[in-house]
Design goal:
single chain, about 230 residues, alpha/beta, Rossmann fold, DNA polymerase, domain 1, 2 domains, six-stranded parallel β-sheet, 8 helices, about 45% helix, globular
Length: about 230
């Protein structure tokens, strides 16, 4: 087995809590409309966001992740009976740019850097979205690169997206550890040739897809202690 040189992370749902925007909006003064609705709205928003990336990739109708995120939110707001609340929509989109990182993320990234590993994000996110999220979380200093699908104009799990890692770091796929909370992304990256970790925060069944993750973890806390990173 090749030595791991680079640890690459999906962003949304892996490093950043995608439910954070709806949760924060519900807790703000005047957020009563979301008091009970926010968990379902966050779930619908995320599902439609992902579905639209796959459908746009299949049909060749690419739009950046900011537009896709807004389109997914519009569907979720309508499903919740909140489609006419323009102020709520604007607030949710603003909050999405500064989603909170999961609490274990800063220490995990620092531990990887202390071991001499390169670290990166490889995300569907548009560059501006990713820059805002990374800055808000305070993790820029522990990342060597933030790679966006906008460089190739198609969403994951297209192979052209995973190609970006080798192009940036000059390494073989076998030297990359790829980490995602999305089972389909972990499977796609494994099929590509990366050694992958599925962060299965929700305890979901494995996707029936080509490619099998090397490890399944409940969160990122123990990642730096995996034997292949020693």
């Amino acid at each position: 087995m090749s030595a791991i040189r680079v640890c690459v992370f999906d962003a949304y749902g892996t490093l950043f809590d995608v439910a954070g925007a709806a949760r924060a909006a519900a807790a703000e003064p005047g957020g009563g409309a979301l008091a009970e609705a926010w968990p379902k709205l966050a779930e619908d928003w995320r599902l439609k966001q992902l579905q639209y990336t796959w459908l746009r990739a299949i049909t060749g109708r690419h739009a950046d992740f900011w537009q896709v995120t807004g389109d997914g939110l519009d569907w979720a707001l309508e499903a919740a009976g909140l489609a006419g609340d323009a102020a709520l929509r604007a607030r949710l989109m603003d909050l999405y740019r500064t989603l909170p990182a999961y609490p274990e993320v800063p220490a995990m990234l620092a531990a990887l850097k202390a071991r001499g590993l390169a670290t990166a994000i490889l995300s569907n996110g548009a560059p501006g979205m990713l820059a805002d999220a990374v800055a808000s979380a305070g993790i820029a200093g522990d990342l060597d690169a933030v790679l966006s699908v906008e460089e190739v104009g198609v969403f994951k799990p297209a192979r052209a997206v995973y190609d970006l890692v080798g192009q940036r770091f000059g390494c073989a796929a076998q030297a990359v550890l790829f980490v995602s909370s999305n089972g389909w992304d972990a499977a796609g990256a494994a099929d590509y040739g990366f050694r992958t970790i599925w962060v299965n925060r929700a305890g979901q069944p494995a996707d029936r897809l080509p490619g099998t993750p090397a490890h399944v973890l409940p969160d990122l806390a123990g990642l730096a202690d995996l034997p292949e990173l020693a």
